[in-house]
């Protein structure tokens, strides 16, 4: 059967900025993926030099690297790349132009299949995602334009008019929203491969205002990339940093290795790990010391949980009075258990109430070694796909503690004193 689709000849302009003027492995991976899809690839970096670009040019005549500090964010790089492409007359033979940047990690799937799917539909401009914020618009980190759009005088003038803006927000207002508005004024249809109308916030069922802030949801929906921002800002990741890191390490180990090797955000990933310390009854006599230890520990996501029987009325009152602030701050949790419950029942309730991703059992060795937990957390952050971290103290994924084998092991460390 003969494929009736016209052959795609893709000219790609990628905007980039390399921290420390060194190209990280994850960006090299993205460039290599773009090169495989592109007839010509223009890399435009908003800086004067980038170590590592020599791998792509001049050894490959289909790749051109432009390094110039311009301060106009991605649209300033798009402007320079498109100007160069027109000067080289590469659009004469092109079928499409792809404008993208290096703000992504991936690809995690078949990017060519997505481009083929876009090409099969009569839509002149595609994006991977869109957003309803301010007004519906395509997000500009990935834009596929038919050649007639890229060569339209109004589109040429739009990119030629790009000037430095005072902030990223101003760039979005002026150029990201502005480009979608221009397409509307020209009567040109645009579409997102993963539209926000089909992406629901799992927390409330409402449409996602910005789907790139839900990296795991996007990957599940078939996105070939996720945004770097979702790995470096807590508010930009509504799926959770710890869970995102764990999924990447488990499902895409080589990409995770590259991320870990070059990212300046490893400390943030470590601090995102939530840990509940399962206290024993013997800890109640020195609870003030235990909580002081937690507050002094450099990990911000620690909390302690203790089980107290309902009949221990006086003890419950003393705990509430003495540790009111810690209870309000979530540093301490007190679980009220029914009278006569055995250790296993109390432990199960503690585990259910913990709400953390990881648990560790209180012991004298644990409290005497401030650095021990920190070392274990560093090991876990580097390999977040682990189900447990052996050593001292033992860290276990809370979800696994409800199996008979793991629960027995935890129960052996924990008792009601």
Please give a quick description of this structure.
The chain is of the alpha/beta class and 417 residues long.
If you had to describe this structure to a student in words, what would you say it looks like?
There is one protein chain. A hairpin with a 5-residue loop joins strand 6 and strand 7. The protein is built from 17 helices and 16 strands. Helix content is 40%, strand content 18%. The protein has helices spanning 25-37, 73-87, 111-119, 147-150, 153-160, 168-185, 215-221, 241-251, 253-262, 266-271, 287-296, 313-322, 324-329, 343-354, 364-368, 370-382, 404-413; strands at 10-16, 40-45, 63-67, 96-101, 104-105, 125-131, 137-138, 142-146, 190-194, 226-227, 275-278, 302-309, 332-337, 358-361, 388-389, 395-397. Strands 1, 2, 3, 4, 6, 7, 8 and 9 form an eight-stranded mixed β-sheet that branches. The model is unreliable at 1-5 (pLDDT under 50). The radius of gyration is 27 Å and the shape is elongated. It folds into two domains: 10-269, Spore Coat Polysaccharide Biosynthesis Protein SpsA, Chain A; 273-413, Spore Coat Polysaccharide Biosynthesis Protein SpsA, Chain A (Alpha-Beta Complex). It is of the alpha/beta class and 417 residues long.
What labels would you give this structure?
18% strand; Spore Coat Polysaccharide Biosynthesis Protein SpsA, Chain A; 17 helices; 2 domains; 8-stranded mixed sheet; 6-stranded mixed sheet; 417 residues; 16 strands; single chain; disordered N terminus; alpha/beta
């Amino acid at each position: 059967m003969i494929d009736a689709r016209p052959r795609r000849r893709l000219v790609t302009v990628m905007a980039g900025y390399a921290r420390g003027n060194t190209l990280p492995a994850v960006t090299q991976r993205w460039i290599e993926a773009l090169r495989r899809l592109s007839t010509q690839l223009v890399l435009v970096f908003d800086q004067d030099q980038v170590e590592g670009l020599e791998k792509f040019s001049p050894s490959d005549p289909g790749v051109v690297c432009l390094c110039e500090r311009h301060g106009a964010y991605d649209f300033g790089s798009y402007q320079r790349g498109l100007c160069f492409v027109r000067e080289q007359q590469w659009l004469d033979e092109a079928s499409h132009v792809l404008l993208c940047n290096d703000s992504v990690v991936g690809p995690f799937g078949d990017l060519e299949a997505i481009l083929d799917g876009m090409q099969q539909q009569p839509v002149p401009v595609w994006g991977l995602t869109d957003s309803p914020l301010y007004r519906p618009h395509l997000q500009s980190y990935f834009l596929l334009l038919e050649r007639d759009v890229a060569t339209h005088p109004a589109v040429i003038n739009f990119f030629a008019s790009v000037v430095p803006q005072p902030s990223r927000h101003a760039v979005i207002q002026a150029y990201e929203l502005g480009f979608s508005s221009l397409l509307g004024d020209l009567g040109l249809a645009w579409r997102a491969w993963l539209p926000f109308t089909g992406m629901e916030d799992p927390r409330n069922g409402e449409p996602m205002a910005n789907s790139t802030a839900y990296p795991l949801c996007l990957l599940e929906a078939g996105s070939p990339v996720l945004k770097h921002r979702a790995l470096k800002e807590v508010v930009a990741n509504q799926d959770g940093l710890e869970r995102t890191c764990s999924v990447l390490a488990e499902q895409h180990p080589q990409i995770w290795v590259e991320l870990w090797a070059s990212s300046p955000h490893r400390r943030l990933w470590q601090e995102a790990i939530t840990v509940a310390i399962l206290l024993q009854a013997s800890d109640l006599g020195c609870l003030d010391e235990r909580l002081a230890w937690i507050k002094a520990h450099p990990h911000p996501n620690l909390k302690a949980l203790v089980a107290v029987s309902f009949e221990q009325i006086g003890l419950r009152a003393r705990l509430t009075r003495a540790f009111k602030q810690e209870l309000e701050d979530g540093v301490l949790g007190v679980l009220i258990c029914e009278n006569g419950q055995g250790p296993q029942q109390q432990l199960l309730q503690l585990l259910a109430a913990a709400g953390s991703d990881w648990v560790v059992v209180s012991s004298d060795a644990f409290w005497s070694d401030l650095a021990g937990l920190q070392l274990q957390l560093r090991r876990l952050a580097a390999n977040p796909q682990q189900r447990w971290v052996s050593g001292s103290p033992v860290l276990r994924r809370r979800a696994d503690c409800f199996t008979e084998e793991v629960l027995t092991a935890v129960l052996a460390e924990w008792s009601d004193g």
